[in-house]
Specification:
Layout (H helix, E strand, L loop, with lengths): L2 H21 L1 H32 L5 H25 L4 H23 L8 H20 L4 H23 L1 H5 L3
Helix pairs in contact: 1-2, 1-3, 2-3, 2-5, 3-4, 3-5, 4-6, 5-6
Length: about 180
């Protein structure tokens, strides 16, 4: 396993303590939110570096193409579900994001069944970046009225990138057997 893939795997492992500290941040207070914040920052940095190193040193693998976005999804979806539980955002916002992720994962599985790998596009990367930034801000400031408005940005990008992705991949639906 090359270094970029190890970083992706590390991001998946970091999800466990991240979930713990974020979930119990109402009990542990600001300290737990800061610990969750720091874990999320480290995990986000692994996302940047695994892609950078893979491209720079031509270490792009099918494992990385599939597991990198999956690791992102685990972190983001975990945070959003916990934010709903803590009352930071309404449930429909996390449902939109989660539904899009399932749809795109389904398309990726159809492509994989045909021996193809579909890497994340630029709009999908912007969506992920906006989600990570908003999650970090929410972890710092906790429950407040602005969370809803901040979360609208990643929700719109989620819908837009989902539409773009499915439009480009419609042949998987039309020609699947």
């Amino acid at each position: 396993m090359n270094l970029p893939n190890k970083l992706t795997f590390l991001r998946l492992i970091l999800a466990v303590p991240f979930i713990y500290f974020l979930q119990f941040s109402d009990i542990g207070g600001f300290t737990y939110r800061i610990i969750a914040f720091m874990i999320f920052v480290i995990a986000s940095l692994t996302d940047f570096f695994d892609g950078y190193l893979a491209r720079k040193h031509n270490l792009i693998t099918d494992f990385g193409k599939i597991m990198d976005p999956l690791a992102d999804k685990v972190l983001v979806i975990s945070a959003l579900v916990i934010f709903v539980d803590l009352g930071y955002i309404p449930s429909w916002m996390s449902i939109v994001v989660i539904a899009r992720e399932f749809l795109i994962s389904g398309i990726r599985m159809l492509a994989a069944a045909k021996g193809e790998v579909i890497p994340a596009g630029k709009l999908g990367k912007y969506k992920t970046t906006s989600q990570m930034i908003v999650i970090l801000i929410m972890m710092l400031f906790g429950r407040n009225i602005y969370n809803f408005y901040m979360m609208l940005i990643p929700v719109v990008l989620t819908l837009w990138s989902g539409w773009e992705y499915t439009s480009k991949a419609k042949h998987y639906f039309l020609n699947s057997k």
